[in-house]
Write a structure and sequence with these properties.
By secondary structure, this protein is an all-alpha fold. It has helices at about 1-35, 40-45, 45-50, 70-100, 105-120, 120-140, 150-175, 180-190, 195-205, 205-220, 225-230, 250-255, 260-295, and strands at about 55, 65. Helix 4 (about 70-100) packs across helix 10 (about 205-220) and helix 6 packs across helix 7.
């Protein structure tokens, strides 16, 4: 009994140390970003968040900096990518989780999904640059829009493909947690497979499915390379879904290495802080919705 208690105490101590380490890391990230962005906050104040001017030309006329175009671009591309990915993620999860749970077909498609998850983002960017951009350009030409295939919609399509494996895999795992007896009882009452999925599986694991989509959204918010290559890198608020734009992550990738003025560097770090806060808020909101769904289940 004493050995068991000692083992439990050891694991409990280890968990507390791990939790403390994670808290220290998160606080370290936050404090570093806050201290790095202090000069920009002193220069522009909170108006930096809703200002839509981005002119870091300090050598000539002085700079005017604001983060709103990049916040809008980040949220627009990420949420549009999530909306595009949802039907495909659910379809893959249902196909592999209910119709082909085992066998060569399941193994084949599961391997494909895992392969998609492991492809580097720069490869997605190259594919989008040489294949997707010309297709979107043809679509925009047919609609009478500007003659290029770059923009928010193009980057959203790339992001949706990148996050499908994560949400599909998690949705499949959650669907697999539904008690088999519950489904067999429904089948015994004469329900069809579609009715079991709609009336038994989805209500039972809706909070887990939502959690998978929130995790996918978190990846979309911070994606850099693939978006940078196809979004157009225009520092203005997108006027429509096909317009050129920019995200916070792609702006940092493009301009941080070239920044020389202290205020310019601090403004870029300020944008990193905003991205950190936006991601945290969305995750907290997601957890709140998950808890609400769990209570109502």
């Amino acid at each position: 009994m004493s050995l068991k208690n000692s083992t439990n105490d050891f694991f409990s101590l280890g968990l507390r140390m791990l939790a403390g380490l994670l808290i220290v890391l998160v606080l370290g990230f936050f404090i570093t970003l806050v201290s790095g962005s202090a000069e920009a906050y002193k220069e522009f104040g909170l108006s930096f968040i809703w200002s839509n001017d981005w002119n870091p030309n300090y050598d000539d006329v002085g700079g005017t900096l604001g983060s709103l175009p990049f916040v809008v671009g980040t949220l627009l591309t990420s949420f549009l990518a999530l909306l595009i990915s949802i039907p495909f993620s659910l379809s893959i999860a249902i196909f592999l989780g209910e119709y082909f749970r085992k066998g060569p077909i399941s193994t084949f498609f599961t391997s494909l999904v895992e392969l998609l998850a492991g492809i580097p983002s720069v490869i997605y960017g190259f594919w989008a640059l040489f294949y997707l951009v010309p297709k979107i350009q043809d679509l925009k030409n047919s609609l009478g829009l500007e003659n290029n295939g770059f923009g928010v919609f193009t980057s959203a399509i790339v992001l949706s493909i990148m996050i499908i494996p994560f949400s599909a895999s998690m949705t499949r795992e959650v669907m697999g947690m539904v008690p088999q007896g519950l489904k067999e009882s429904a089948y015994a009452l004469g329900t069809t497979r579609f009715e079991v999925i709609k009336d038994i599986i989805f209500p039972y694991c809706k909070s887990g499915i939502f959690a998978g989509f929130i995790l996918s959204l978190g990846r979309a918010l911070g994606e850099t390379m693939a978006v940078t290559m196809v979004i157009g890198n225009n520092n203005e608020i997108p006027k429509n879904l096909f317009a050129l734009g920019n995200t916070m992550a792609s702006l940092l990738a493009n301009e941080f290495a070239e920044a020389s003025e202290d205020t310019y560097i601090s403004a870029l770090i300020f944008i990193g802080l905003i991205l950190f806060i936006v991601t945290t808020i969305i995750n907290l909101m997601g957890k709140w919705v998950i808890k609400s769904l769990s209570r109502s289940a």
